[in-house]
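Tutorial, part two.
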Amino acid sequence: MAYQLYRNTTLGNSLQESLDELIQSQQITPQLALQVLLQFDKAINAALAQRVRNRVNFRILARILQNE
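Running the prediction step on this input gives:
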């Protein structure tokens, strides 16, 4: 799954370590931890997609303004 690429970031690793600690202390179930990771995958991908779109739009606008 391409979404899982971001789990190897500092933020993703910290999340996984925290979830593992919560599982070990029996504060959450492994199923809940998986749901949290899946939500993280979706959220990080959506946030990065929006940021990339904004950057592209800004660069296009900057080039248009330079040519005027």
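The helical segments are 10-24, 30-67. In part three we will examine how such features are distributed along the chain.
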